[in-house]
Amino acid sequence: MTASTDARALLAELTGDAACTGTWSAPGRANLIGEHTDYNDGFALPFAIDRRTVAAVRVRDDARIRVASTAAPAPVEVAIDDLDGLFALPPAERGLPEWAGYPLGVAWALRRTAATARIGVEIALASDVPVGSGLSSSAAIEGAVAFALNDVWRADLTPVQLARVGRLAENEAVGAPTGIMDQMASFCGQQDAAILLDCRTLDVRPIDLGFAAAGLEVLVIDTRVEHSHADGGYADRRAACERGAATLGVPALRDLTSDDLPRAAELLDETTFRRVRHVVTENQRVLDTVARLAADGARAIGDLLTASHASLRDDFEVSCPELDTAVDAALAAGALGARMTGGGFGGCAIALVDADRASQVADAAVQAFAASGFAPPRVFTVHPSAGARSDRSPAIDSVEA
Ligand code: ADP
Ligand code: MG
Q1: Domain 210-382, what architecture?
Q2: Parallel/antiparallel/unpaired status of strands 64-69 and 120-127
Q3: In degrees rounded to 5, what are phi and psi of residue 195?
């Protein structure tokens, strides 16, 4: 795996020799269905993908932490004891490049969450997850670092606890008000399966997808339109959901069903109503997808994916022309279903396709982008894969706290 080789090479460049305590990695994720439901205590059905971020780690004999990435120009170093003070400052006063908020934020969040050994570390990161495309390179970097520090610092947290650490880092250290779906998918994913995530209880249930057995593949169409969670759109949608729940007198939109929609239509302004309707119907589509997978198999879920896209486009209004073009072109070329995945405003669409039609669907997307005057998309397949893990080296057992 090249990200692993690259991470080790970066570590060697950083430290001057090839010694490495161990490597840890975490995947990006694609969300099969269940979008903008996580922060509404709802359901999502994401899967970890076969693209990963790798952390090559070496302990150092002072209590400092240095992070470097092949995707960033310069390493950043801080004393472990300074992490609390650093993240207590407003972001603009920290003197940190934005990317460093992810790995250092995880270190800070881990120390806030658990008793940890105070061991200095060098962390070199490399990734083959596209950054900023909606495949959650952010959860992947958090997972690689969280699983590494969990072992090196002997924090002894479970993957679900580490997912909370990742979210704490992303929310408080980076300042992106995201839910926990990305971390749960990346940290708890399983080969050939999606995870049914109950975002209220954080219960996870692996759901067999059986795509390969059904002759299906998932095609990712990366529009290359950069999204940013820090921008207003995401926060605005969250606020609308909170407003809707408060007006309807429920703790979260998860507590509504389609039976509540007529009342919602009476009480809410038209825009807030459509935001609420997306979340309510999307939760149901997740549960329907799980039921259909079990009853009828993977070929039966396509129209649910496509209905999810329509709801995100028309009711939640988080799609964009490039995502709509990708979805429409994929469906016209024979995809069983297609939808935007991730937060929206750009990023990626996924299409469920017959494996032997994948290249035709990919070509159709490229042609449709050209015809619309959009920059060419990046198109590739992803496979449901294992979640974060350690490739622990024996050297770690001799590290003294
Ligand atoms: P996504 O999670 O969809 O890829 P986000 O905006 O949530 O997009 O996260 C992308 C940000 O995460 C990048 O701008 C960068 O700050 C950080 N990041 C992700 N992967 C890496 C990496 N390998 N090296 C450095 N920073 C990274
Ligand atoms: Mg992200």
Answers
A1: 2-Layer Sandwich (3.30)
A2: parallel
A3: -115, 130
Same fold, 3-206 and 210-382: no
Residue 131 Cα to ligand 2 midpoint, Å, equals: 8
Residue 338 forms beta bridges with which residues?
A: 351
pLDDT digits (tens, 9 = 90+) for 339-369: 999 989 999 999 999 999 999 999 999 999 9
Question: Residue 32: CB partners within 8 Å, gap ≥ 6?
Answer: 45, 46, 47, 194, 209, 218, 289, 305, 341, 350
User: Looking at ligand 1, which atom is closest to the CA of residue 134?
Assistant: 3
Instruction: Render pLDDT for 190-225 as a digit per residue (tens, 0 to 9).
Output: 999 999 999 999 899 999 999 999 999 999 999 999
Closest CA to 1 of 54, 57, 49: 54
The alpha carbon of 37 and the centre of ligand 2 are apart by a number of angstroms equal to 15
Question: Which residues of the chain register pLDDT less than 50?
Answer: none
Q: Which long-range contacts (CB under 8 A, 24 or more apart) does 94-99 make?
A: 97/72, 97/73, 98/174, 99/69, 99/71, 99/72
Taking CA atoms only, the protein residue closest to ligand 1 atom 6 is 132
Mutate to test the pocket of ligand 1, among 24, 69, 102 (most ligand atoms within 8 A of CB): 102
**Residue ranges covered by each domain of the chain:** 3-206, 210-382
SS3 of 73, please?
coil
Instruction: Give the Cα separation of 275 and 239 in Å (integer).
Output: 10
CATH number given to 3-206: 3.30.230.10
Give the separation between CA 266 and CA 107, rounded to whole angstroms. Answer: 47
- Please give the number of the atom of ligand 1 that sits closest to the Cα of 139: 2
Cα–Cα distance measured from residue 136 to residue 46, given in angstroms and rounded to the nearest whole number = 11
Say whether pTM exceeds 0.90. yes
* Ligand 1 atom nearest residue 227's Cα: 6
Q: φ, ψ for residue 73 (rounded to 5)?
A: -70, -40
Phi-psi domain of 271 (left: phi exceeds 0; alpha: psi -120 through 50; beta: other): alpha
